Amino acid sequence: MAELLHEMDGTDSGIDGPKRITVIGAGIAGLVAAYELERLGHHVQVIEASHEIGGRIHTHRFPGGGGQAGPFAELGAMRIPAGHRLTMHYIAELGLQNQVREFRTLFSDAAAYLPGPSGFLRVRDAHETLVGEFAARVPGRPYRENTLLFGAWLEASIRAIAPRPYYERLRSEIDVELLNLIDHIDLTPYRCGSAGNRIDLHAFFADHPQVRSFCPPRLERFLDDVLDETSSTIVRLRNGMDALPQRVASRIRGRISTGHEVVGIQVRDDGVTLRIRQGIRTLSKTCDYVVCTIPFTVLRRMRLTGFDQNKLDIVQQTKYWPATKVAFHCREPFWEKDGISGGASFTGGHVRQTYYPPAEGDPAFGAVLLASYSIGPDADALGRLSEVERNGIITRELSVIHPELREPGMVLGVAGRAWGARRWSWGAATVRWGQEASLREAERREAARPQKGLFFAGEHCSSKPAWIEGAIESAIDVAHEIQWYRPRANRVFAAAARLSRSGEPA
């Protein structure tokens, strides 16, 4: 799709010539949509409610010394599966490929932790406990060692990634039919880890796509995220993920206005009227075309008129997961003395996941520990707390495995973001786990369906919700749609003109 748009760049400004387009939202979807629409010859303005660009890509930089920036934490999107071709395409096109580095994820470091029945286990030592627990609850005939190892690590991955209530429903769906199929496949090539005591789930499912058809619908969609998050081919940007939206914004010629909050949208036959709050003033702006990229959680708090009922229904019903991230600026990367060189621990409790970003800056400025990454009810529970209460719970839970956190002067600063409580997002990402493929696609199409001159983009309008890839995919789609869009009045006029030229009565 990106290649198609680029081929058209400069050769055609679409039906009826260049269009004037207002984009709501300066997240990655809005910025890419503006960038591509300008490349197609259109005139674009971007308006953003907050005072920063990037949306749910948010890199927080802790202070260093002498006015220099210290280490940073990704409080929003932090990783890109290498198979997300659109995102990787833009990274290359924007000259960021020299910043691409490996992202080490859950269970990728043998010294990282996960909870066991009587305390925390190291990843390198967890297999016997995990297999024993899994085998004890699997009914039916005895399975081969590799099959049980497969099931144990699949269950551990689901437990680490899914919110707790969702995990309880999912674990029962690693069922007998799936295990019977796995038991006939040689899993030896997929054993990984220094002692070969884990299974590379991502590689296995890539080589055996037919296995997915035996997964229940609730598990099948969730597997996409499990496999992406535990893949060995995930990347990051060395100097911060915010380089991506900043680089796109630098290529946009039109104005990007922050602090412009849209509070109402009226769709009319001849355009779209926006009610925009700027400080204490609220103004009206009539636009020929509008691309709305903000989350539906924000949109449904606005006054919306001229929308059809099906569109209002999808705006109201689209579900978003909350997410909360809390990062500690530490005096030193103390986890390295514990043998952990990167990756993440599944710490459970309120903390859920703990990541160990590489300490690549000046050692004098310390290092960052992404102390807690939670989604769903756990994220909401943390997000409702005061900063002092939240930091206290995280420190108390995490110091069980990292007692260094209690050392005086170890924690130099804390930064966090509760996306479910943030007024510009009211959620972290759309989640369509548990839905059959046909229903997911129907909801995606309805989310992306325009209302006359009002178009929609964002990860919630894509086939890859919750990922940068989805936001970019939707931006390319909407640029293509606007490129060839003709208002109904123009279509009627053009048809009448054709009939007139042919000598038939109009």
TrEMBL record:
UniProt keyword Oxidoreductase, yes or no: yes
Ranges where the Amine oxidase domain occurs: 28-482
InterPro entries: Amino_oxidase (IPR002937), FAD/NAD-bd_sf (IPR036188), Flavin_amine_oxidase (IPR001613), Flavin_monoamine_oxidase (IPR050281)
Superkingdom per UniProt: Bacteria
Keyword Oxidoreductase found: yes
Cofactor(s) required, per the database record: FAD
SUPFAM superfamilies registered for this protein in UniProt: FAD-linked reductases, C-terminal domain, FAD/NAD(P)-binding domain
Entry keywords, A to Z: Oxidoreductase
Cross-referenced PANTHER family: AMINE OXIDASE, FLAVIN MONOAMINE OXIDASE
Protein's UniProt name: FAD-dependent oxidoreductase
Organism: Streptomyces yaizuensis
Lineage: Bacteria, Bacillati, Actinomycetota, Actinomycetes, Kitasatosporales
